[in-house]
Amino acid sequence: MSSQVVVGTQWGDEGKGKIVDVLAENADMVVRFQGGDNAGHTVIVDGKKHVLHLLPSGVLHEEGACIIGPGVVCNPFVLLEEMEKLKEGGMSTDHIIVSDRTHILMPYHCYQDQLEESAAVNKIGTTKKGIGPCYADKYARHGIRYHELKDFEHFKERVHENLKLKNKLFTEVYNAEPMDEEKIIADFEQIRSRILPMIKETTSVINKAIDEGKNVLFEGAQACMLDINYGTYPYVTSSSPTSAGVTEGAGVAPSKIQTVVGVVKAYSTRVGEGPFVTELENEKGEWIRDHGFEFGATTGRPRRCGWLDLVVVKHAHMLNGLTDIVLTKIDVLTGLDELNVCIGYEIDGQILDIVPSDQEEVARAKPVYKVFPGWKEDITKIERKEDLPKECIDYIDFIEEYVGVPVSMISVGPDRVNNIYVKEIK
Ligand code: IMP
Prior knowledge:
The chain is of the alpha/beta class. Helices cover 32% and strands 21% of the residues. The strands form five sheets. The protein has a ten-stranded mixed β-sheet, sandwiched between helices. Strands 14, 16, 17 and 18 form a four-stranded mixed β-sheet that branches. A two-stranded antiparallel ribbon has the order 3-4. Strand 19 (407-411) and strand 20 (419-421) form a beta hairpin. Helix 3 crosses helix 4 and helix 5 runs antiparallel to helix 6. The relative contact order is 0.15.
């Protein structure tokens, strides 16, 4: 049995796409289990940049199956658009499967997300892709799932029922225009024949693959600090981007998860609102943003940048049960005289090494830093850990020691090949 989960340990954008792309080389199946097209994965293959939002990065390996699991909220129009782009690039999309239990992210979810964000006093800073409203409908039990597309008369009725309520909300609460039901139906009528062949029961397929000893890779989107339960609520996404999310979102028992790879970026970034203890709202933060190209792949927004926060990474380890760390973008820090790493939060005179649940407290927290000397040498071509500058090795070893998880791989550049393999990820 081999089942690997790849998760983000910070606020997303850790570079999971590239790592999944590397690990997917040996995978028979790649599965996305939560989120939707709020994600933004940039993968560079043979110098060509691919930006994916909904499809797992593992889709670039065409040999295995690529599954959009039941825990995902999937916008079918975005799905087809991404498939089209891959086809234009000469890639196959025949291996893509959408679970029949997956919820359809409807056009009215995107509209609702935009209206809610515009009207909110305390904005979340969502990607406006409709993620929250679609999950809200799912848990309120009036969402529409992919299997419901099979009987189009039934689907039309479901849209009619839902849109009646949504249009009341749009017009009466938000004083906005209603949505046109006929247009929605016509748009679905156009794409339905292309979607139907992809819809399959996936839970038994995934479990059978694991039981048969195939390599199944579960690809997380977003990250631990955006988790609906354990992130900086309410400044979070609406799903569980942790290893626990796999059990729910793909239908796999916890005992079947073998390896949990936590992707840690060598510094911190966040997009959207919410407290961020190690944020650098100064020229250092701008320096990191410029050197790391820290602009959202989905929204283009400049990402907020700051020092590495190991309190956050340790929180991620506690929740995910990490077996390996993959450290990314450490090359971005080359050139700095000194690096800070946060190892505690000072809140009202007390030092904590856990993430408090009350965001007011997090907002008051002052970071307790351990200072490391920087390095100046270009590290992007290095292939063995021992060839890295001593200062860089000390920085990596400290992460390993503080979190208590081996750093098994170090990504030192954006291309598929810019990696140092320290320990085999099994
Ligand atoms: P939503 O997922 O669009 O509802 O957005 C909720 C919060 O999660 C916002 O702060 C977004 O910026 C953030 N978010 C959602 N997806 C990603 C991602 O893939 N990377 C980083 N932040 C994300």
